[in-house]
Design brief:
Number of strands of chain A: 11
Strand content of chain B: 15-25%
Shape of chain A: elongated
Order of helices and strands of chain B: HHEHEEEHEEEHEEHEEEHEHHHHHH
Structural class of chain B: alpha+beta
Order of helices and strands of chain A: HHEEHEEHEHEHEEEHHEHEHHHHHHH
Oligomer: heterodimer
Number of domains of chain A: 2
Number of helices of chain B: 13
Number of helices of chain A: 16
Chain lengths: ~425, ~400
């Protein structure tokens, strides 16, 4: 009977084309609005590194001034100072740790037809690549020896490597950066975690950093940190004093073997903070915080209020479309009362009428889902025009595709419950009499 | 006006009216909040930057690839300024450290007295080696601009000098020294005994910060005199004669590149583009809200029209009987319109309550602002109007039903 009702449903769609078209359109618009905002929410709040997100931690050690400090107040900056970063890299109980900061360098391409340009890059320590599962197209991370010496080695991202060297493997080639020769040791594969959770403060280009050099090299060359440098005290000029000061400009991550080792890491950090307080470095009595990936994204408000507002609005809109659809379905089904009367008189039970009309509603739901999907693609394109980073996030994946049809079908079925129930209540006798 | 019969007829067949009232309520609640947010964002995006001619102002970030000594870098900066000033159509050039709405720049904490417990706020720190006030066309309301002799040459790598003179914006002056003239007062960069101070020599009306934050921090700015050099690059703000920006931009770029023996990296941005980029997200949200509001109105309208048409069709016989018994067309029309107004009113009341509730939720969870009552009142009026207009068509068709045809039972 299902196939028969399905065919009936399809045929009845054509019966009152204007009404059906209106119903399908309104349902489609509601579904499109909800799905497009949901898709963005899904990308923004999804786990960028499932399987590891509970083992990667960002520590927060408050090294601010004691004056005017209120316990629990929002910190001015959540980055780390250089002394803390170096101390923790030297000695920590976790499996891996990395520190990084963003910077820029001029690149003079080997080909004379491309002019020199300023590139944005990252200066992490080598554990970065293993910790964040960074894929490599060519080559591999620099060696521990390179890092110790602060050698002139660089890893390029795929776009820049192709721009400068075409399709050839550039590993081993020389590149002039900030007027000095650097050796290319690797090229990153396509790596576009959404959002770029590894560096949420002072984030770099939306398409990812163009090059990576060892942090030791960047420090040796006294490269200016790009992004956010926060100094709560006046400091002497010069790079050396930046390194010695309590200015925060470095972002730090730990990786533990399992989520259980978090407590151990926390107590290690608390001991460390205690030592630093005795040395007079940390003046505030602030608690040590440890954030895993999802908590860090929450604290940094990755899913902004505007995105949440859009999602709520879209759902309110869907509910309105639902209520409207209920009204339209009531109208549509009430016109079919005579047909129902005849079927019932011929022996159909209430349940069978219910099934028939519910399946018909389902057909409308599917049609609405199809149109809604097309509209959702359009809506995502429109939302993508907001900014480059939004354009990268406004995408539909298979999960969302399935969700479109699920939402549309459920919405239609829910909307159809009342009209369908009403249709079943038709008394055959009255309908037959007025024929 | 037969309210009671209409009411009792409505109550007997509740489903349709409830559906319409729900639609009106939902639409009103969402619409009022949406339009309020649109208006807010529009206001934020329309904040004045303080520049006299945004369309004619642009800036260069210049970096050459030589290994110059700091003194050579200083000489380069002076040479580049000369080259830029010589370009025809350039009204004024100034070396600056950051530009308004560029989303790249620094701030400092400020206080009226360094013995304060907490700082009074945060302000954007603009350094200029020339006259930023003249180049950006800022409006001085008190005091004076810097004289050339006020501007020290500061080697950023070695010089720890802190500025001793500062120009502030009027909102900042009003916050630190309410009701008193700011010129001559000392402003401190933070609190605590080590915080240094600078004397205010001038006040400009407006200068928005580099990040154009919402609230105080966006309109608190400091301009300090320093010709900064030593970090291998410089930023120049240029204002062209009105309407000539694009041509001047091109010629200035060519002149700069020609003046340097070695290749240079040049980034060009206009203040117009910076404004668009800074407010892009707010503008996009506004458009989305406006689109959704328009769709809401359309859908609710169609819902009311559809429901009204359905009732007319269901009550053909009753209408026919009434007409046959002597009701005029006007009576039928009035009946349907009154009925619709009653349903819409119920919806409007529900909508106002829902709207206030929704706003409370937005305020508490999404840090939005409170909804002024005027939006709900305006929304209520709009939906009443829509209710009456939407019902008019079907009501007129009902009134035009011929009694003879309607009472015929087939």
């Amino acid at each position: 009977m299902f196939a028969y009702y399905f065919k009936l449903g399809l045929r009845n769609l054509r019966r009152n084309p204007a009404l059906t078209a209106l119903m399908v359109l309104i349902l489609a618009v509601g579904v499109a609005a909800s799905v497009s905002t949901l898709a963005i929410l899904h990308v923004m709040s999804g786990d960028p590194i499932p399987g590891k997100s509970d083992r990667l931690f960002v520590p927060f050690i408050d090294n601010g001034q004691p004056d005017g400090y209120v316990l629990g107040a929002e910190p001015v900056d959540m980055q780390m100072a250089y002394p803390d970063a170096m101390n923790l890299l030297r000695k920590h109980p976790a499996e891996r740790a990395t520190a990084m900061f963003g910077t820029g360098m001029s690149i003079e391409p080997p080909r004379s037809d491309i002019p020199a340009f300023q590139a944005y890059g990252l200066a992490p320590t080598r554990a970065f690549f293993a910790m964040f599962d960074v894929p490599f197209l060519h080559g591999q991370p620099w060696t521990a020896d390179d890092e110790a010496r602060g050698a002139n080695v660089v890893i390029l991202n795929r776009t820049v490597a192709e721009k400068l060297f075409g399709d050839a493997n550039p590993v081993g080639q020389r590149l002039i950066m900030n007027r000095e020769p650097f050796t290319v040791v690797g090229v990153l594969g396509d790596w576009n975690p959404m959002p770029r959770y590894y560096k949420l403060i002072g984030s770099g280009p939306a398409t990812g950093e163009e090059f990576m050099i060892p942090m030791a090299t960047a420090v040796r060359k006294e490269l200016t940190p790009y992004g956010s440098v926060n100094c709560s005290q006046v400091r002497d000029p010069g790079y050396a004093s930046l390194l010695a000061s309590e200015c925060t400009w470095i972002q730090f991550w730990f990786e533990t073997r399992s989520a259980f080792e978090r407590a151990e890491l926390q107590s290690f950090l608390e001991n460390y903070a205690g030592e630093q307080r005795k040395l007079g470095r940390l003046k505030r009595n602030a608690p040590i915080e440890l954030y895993d990936v999802m908590a860090w994204m929450e604290v940094r408000k990755v899913v902004g209020n505007d995105t949440k507002l859009s999602a709520w609005l879209a759902f309110g809109f869907l509910i309105l479309c639902l209520v409207n659809t209920v009204g339209l379905l009531l109208a549509k089904f009430s016109a079919r009362a005579p047909e129902v009367g005849i079927r019932r008189a011929l022996g159909a039970s209430r349940r069978e009428i219910f099934q028939q009309f519910l399946i018909e509603t389902g057909v409308i739901g599917l049609a609405g889902g199809l149109l809604g999907l097309l509209l959702a693609f359009g809506a995502l394109a429109l939302i993508g025009m907001q900014s480059r980073s939004m354009a990268a996030m406004a995408r539909m994946d298979w999960e969302m595709l399935g969700l479109t049809f699920a939402i549309s079908l459920c919405a239609a079925l829910v909307a159809g419950l009342l009209p369908t129930w009403r249709a079943c209540q038709v008394t055959p006798a009255i309908q037959l009499k007025s024929q | 006006m037969e309210i009671r019969p209409i009411l009792s007829a409505l109550l007997r067949n509740k489903t349709g009216p409830i559906l319409v009232a729900m639609q009106v309520a939902l639409s009103l609640a969402i619409l009022a909040n949406a339009l309020h947010i649109v208006n807010e964002r529009r206001e934020v995006a329309a904040r004045p930057s303080g520049l006299s001619d945004e369309a004619a102002t642009f800036y260069f970030s210049v970096r050459n690839l030589n290994q110059d000594t700091p003194d050579q870098m200083l000489a380069t900066i002076k040479r580049e300024l000369e080259v830029l000033r010589a370009v025809p159509g350039v009204a004024s050039v100034a070396q600056v450290s950051q530009m308004p709405m560029s989303q790249s720049g620094g701030t400092t904490s400020i206080a009226a007295d360094n013995r304060q417990q907490r700082e009074s706020g945060y302000a954007a720190t603009y350094f200029t080696g020339d006259s930023m006030v003249k180049t950006l066309g800022l409006k001085l309301v008190e005091g004076r601009d810097f004289h050339p002799q006020d501007i020290p040459e500061v080697n950023e790598q070695t010089n720890a000098e802190v500025p001793t003179l500062v120009i502030v914006t009027k909102p900042l002056a009003d916050k630190l020294w309410p009701g008193a003239p700011a010129v001559g007062k000392t402003m401190y960069f933070g609190t605590g005994s080590s915080a240094t101070g600078a004397q205010v020599i001038g006040v400009v009306e407006d200068l928005i910060s580099a990040h154009a934050e919402i609230g105080e921090t966006g309109i608190f700015s400091l301009i300090m005199p320093a010709r900064q050099y030593g970090n291998g690059g410089a930023m120049y703000a240029i204002r062209s004669e009105p309407g000539q920006r694009d041509r001047v931009m091109q010629e200035a770029e060519q002149a700069l590149r020609k003046s340097s023996a070695t290749p240079m990296i040049l980034r060009i941005k206009t203040v117009e583009d910076d404004r668009k980029d800074r407010y892009r997200a707010d503008t996009a949200l506004s458009w989305m809200l406006v689109t959704v509001s328009a769709l809401l109105l359309l859908i609710t309208c169609s819902g009311i029209v559809g429901m009204a048409t359905l009732w007319v069709n269901q009550r053909r016989k009753q209408i026919g009987v009434r007409r046959a018994l002597g009701a005029r067309k006007l009576d039928i029309l009035r009946y349907f319109i009154v009925e619709n107004v009653m349903i819409t009113s119920a919806g409007v009341v529900g909508g106002v309550l829902l709207g206030v509730g929704l706003n409370a939720l937005l305020v508490s969870r999404l840090e939005m602002a409170r909804l002024p009552l005027v939006y709900l009142v305006a929304g209520a009026i709009v939906f009443w109007a829509i209710g009456i207009l939407s019902a008019y068509g079907p009501a007129w068709r009902a009134a035009s039903i011929s009694p003879a045809l309607a009472t015929r039972s087939t």
